[in-house]
Amino acid sequence: MSDDTTGILNVLIADDHAMILEMFEMYLANVPDIALTTTTDLDGALKKIEENGFYDLVLVDLDMPGMNGLTGLTRAIQANGGKPVAILTGGPSPRMVDDIMAHGASGVVVKTTSLRSLANAIRFMASGERYVPLELLHEKNRAHASIAVPLSDREMMVLARLVEGMPNREIGAALNLAEPTIKMHVKSICKKLGVSNRTQAVIASRDLKLI
Asked: Cα(79)–Cα(77) distance, rounded to whole angstroms?
């Protein structure tokens, strides 16, 4: 649905909060290089793409009906023919931001972002770049900085599965690691977080907004 001849970006925003959609519509109506289409759920977004063709950017609310977590993001990316799809959300944890980007999103837009910043973010992502607000990057850095010895990437992967309640054997299978190796990582995580067991590690990680 891109109109390369006029330089206008065709953008689809899907969110089940009427007030947010109305706010976006009112502002972007006055932005000459952005043509906005809106809908209220994932099925509506997929239908708009099917009817109108690929959009230069699709922005979908993480928690709206039909999303089913990041499964909806994957469906939207496939439907939009590989063109940019980004997530609209509230205050995601650093881990959630990592997961969103790992699932192929072009970016994360926080609902409290200024409208001017929204327009700039839309242009940035539509051009093929990946966008994460500075405040989310700073929050992630602060969370890691609050630990005397930061967790490694592998330890973060193990911690994420501890939060999901997975036992060591299942974590090992998921990460293709031996169970004794997982036990070693859990012990290291507990030491770095200053706790004595995996349950306390989960609680501490949430308090520190690591997950």
From this structure: 5
